[in-house]
């Protein structure tokens, strides 16, 4: 059968991105032809300012070289401008007569720079900056001439001015507005920016209207005249006064256009066979001039071209970042606010820092940051997600503190870091390596950087820094990753939340069933999605779903903790951190018998036997089992330890019996699988010797009862647990804690710790389920009890069944 | 000179699972994929020596349990951006028994 034909008009970033997305979804669906008016393959237009500034070579901006088109069987017509769409014959025709018939047509014709309607706007030496040819003309001019005037103090104008100044020209920026970047910054930040740019040698004329451009004796532009009659010398004039969507082709073909080609939420024009994306379209009355929204459009459009039909584009919230080295500014959303808005501002003039947050009701709606943009990505996400900020309002200005202090010497400003500074302490990746990868491979997202450099792919404490580096290199194109909308992995389009919901609502019971029903792209999934799916299945359908050992990480498959040399560590459970002579003797005996090289006390009050050969594990467990010792689950995404202080049993300050309660809790929760590991602590008085404040669940005994804290974490970034409620009895503690953990088990995403879960859903939400709603609490607790019914000790089970997991073949000559 | 050695019955290795074999040439990881193909490679990740036999198998790839490097079992090469490779050994199945050539 012949494949349907897809013709793409426009070989720019929007058109190609749509193709890339389409090829990911349906690589063989179409016979594809691409027309590009420029003679170059697809390049990264946003790096042109970096080419102008001399920081990047043009070749480094190529996104898809001719090989890419060839590999994917795409017919590429370069340097051919399409001049006609024959909608009846379903055919496009280029200037030189080349034509192509289509079943689906994608218009991605982009935009052109607006030209001021003043006399002399067509003189030699007057440039509208749009493509690589304009950039080369500007570089050429900087070699031969001295005086440049840039008309327009927007993003493009300032990047042009900066680049030309770096190339040695005297640059004056003429701007009609009252301050720079008035569409991106408020007045205060605009003035700070102007000061910084003046310090770099740029000159500014604000509230100045251009009246005419005058030629010199050689016919080239020589001066610029303003409305007040004054003149400035100029042998290069760059116009950067805005862009105009290229709609002439569509208009001639009779497609409905207003400012841009009008499209619906599926990026379809008024002709159902014709789609349009990018700067040429108008969606819900809005046209976009930044690349980020185009990428979102590309993704949706590809979904419909692939006939998946499940995506909608509902518009973009945009953010701004100026690509001028050494200047940190960020703005997003409705940063000017309205009469109903509240403003939280912070200024530190001598440090050059200014921050403004715009709040309406329960939501952050806009932000301007100048001088310190480290939290920009976080604010942007809060704005986009419309997350309630009431609870964190008092500390909103101080950021999420998600940037850990480990591995990168507490450095938190990427712009100030030298190229050889280490950003990712786990994988040893420097700032220079990240910048080089972004430029060389055309990376746009945090995930891209992780894939190409490994930076921030291990512990993640440098994520904020990597995001800043991306933002510095890409400018306004950079879109912070949106965890809520992020697919689990490359095997699917679906998010964790969507997969959880499908498993629950469609009662899916095995991994193959999930993959089949939800259209997984890979037959076996991958090491990221399979463990997540396995957890979602067994936690949603206990006693019904199949547990798949091959989809578990080795530690959970072997019930021990893998070490760097491939040996394992064994941690027997000591309920509440208590032990006795029999247990200690058994541990000492196996350690001697199996020559365990290292014995160490863990942070959770247990004994760790390190350096055990895998084949010895069942033998050791068999002996430990005789003394009553069971698995400590020290290896799993499951209940780890309940740490306790001595408590009222012995301590002269103790108010509650923490050891006894710790043992009860640990026994109640034994064998509980969870999205991530879960650690508890019980302290017998507010002195809190068991460190309840940094545990997933921490109990603090007080004279009148027990305080329950949740969502603490002592890891990469120390997170203090939040107060949930106070209860009177041990029974209540167990019910409330069990209900909270069940809520987390049912709603948490795989590898999301309780502190991250809590940050996502909010403490108020958890309180409403657990504290304010006794029926819900009891139901949750009962579901936990049901899933824990009949839990076996995995060690004794492995011993009894002589599990083949531990078998090793030996082969001799 | 490759010598064929009998390893174990095929059913002893689960699908998407592995078997570690100690040999005079060092440890070898023997993988069985969903489509019942068998791949044998040195049981040492080119990154930091992790035991690949303990990793998660998907398609014709294994993910190292230590730091998540992915190794393409058909070529023995690490998947980009990582660089490195492991030695491969020929395998075959005869009458439901697995053989490996050392």
UniProtKB/TrEMBL annotation, chain A:
Residues covered by the NADH-rubredoxin oxidoreductase C-terminal domain: 319-386
GO molecular function ontology, one term from the record: 2 iron, 2 sulfur cluster binding
Cofactor binding annotation: Binds 1 [4Fe-4S] cluster per subunit.
Keywords: 2Fe-2S, 4Fe-4S, FAD, Flavoprotein, Heme, Iron, Iron-sulfur, Metal-binding, Nitrate assimilation, Oxidoreductase
Residues annotated as binding siroheme: 689
CDD domains in UniProt: NirB_Fer2_BFD-like_1, NirB_Fer2_BFD-like_2
GO BP annotations listed: nitrate assimilation
Domain BFD-like [2Fe-2S]-binding, first and last residues per copy: 423-471, 488-538
InterPro entries per the UniProt record, alphabetical: BFD-like_2Fe2S-bd_dom, BFD-like_2Fe2S-bd_dom_sf, FAD/NAD-bd_sf, FAD/NAD-binding_dom, FAD/NAD-linked_Rdtase_dimer_sf, NasD-like, NiRdtase/SiRdtase_haem-b_fer, Nit/Sulf_reduc_fer-like_dom_sf
PROSITE patterns: NIR_SIR, PROKAR_LIPOPROTEIN
Protein name: Assimilatory nitrite reductase large subunit
Species of provenance: Hydrogenophilus thermoluteolus (Pseudomonas hydrogenothermophila)
Automatic annotation (TrEMBL), chain B:
Record-linked Pfam families: Rieske_2 (PF13806)
UniProt cross-references to InterPro entries, sorted A to Z: Rieske-like_NirD (IPR012748), Rieske_2Fe-2S (IPR017941), Rieske_2Fe-2S_sf (IPR036922)
GO BP terms: nitrate assimilation
Protein name (record): Assimilatory nitrite reductase small subunit
NCBIfam families linked: nirD_assim_sml
GO molecular function: 2 iron, 2 sulfur cluster binding; metal ion binding; nitrite reductase [NAD(P)H] activity
Ranges where the Rieske domain occurs: 5-100
UniProt KW keywords: 2Fe-2S, Iron, Iron-sulfur, Metal-binding, Nitrate assimilation, Oxidoreductase
